[in-house]
Specification:
122 residues, mainly beta, 4-stranded mixed β-sheet, 4-stranded antiparallel β-sheet, 1 helix, 8 strands, globular
Length: 122
């Protein structure tokens, strides 16, 4: 199980810290999606319709949960996509703009976009 040990304003050398942009739990009921501006969504896993993973220079994960489409982009996202398959992702959060993706090892979430699914009203 991975746990975040980072606060929004960490001190010390970033490369020596165990900074994560997601957390893995055992069968959470909801996925919390946190955006850089502080906005968050709690989306129920029982309404997960689809998880898509697209590898590339920037990996992409597309989720459809309830009436929302979530697009996550970043580096090394395959491990995160596989964790969605097991319903074990507790939360995801955009990496703060002050950190470079190049400095990060492992899963690095550069951006998250949440939209109302097509054909639904919020």
């Amino acid at each position: 199980m991975k746990r975040s040990q980072c606060k929004d304003a960490p001190s010390g050398d970033l490369s020596k810290r165990n900074y994560l942009s997601w957390d893995r739990a055992v069968q959470p009921r909801c996925l919390r999606v946190e955006l850089a501006d502080g906005t968050f969504f709690a989306l129920p896993y029982q309404h997960l319709v689809c998880v898509g993973f697209e590898p590339g220079t920037d990996d992409t994960i597309n989720l459809t949960i309830a009436r929302h489409e979530v697009k996550i982009t970043g580096k090394n996202l395959r491990e995160l996509a596989l964790a969605f398959q097991r319903f074990t992702v507790d939360w995801v959060r955009e990496l703060s703009a002050r950190y470079s993706q190049a400095e990060m090892e492992g899963v690095c979430i550069a951006s998250i976009k949440v939209d109302a699914a097509r054909g639904s009203k919020q």
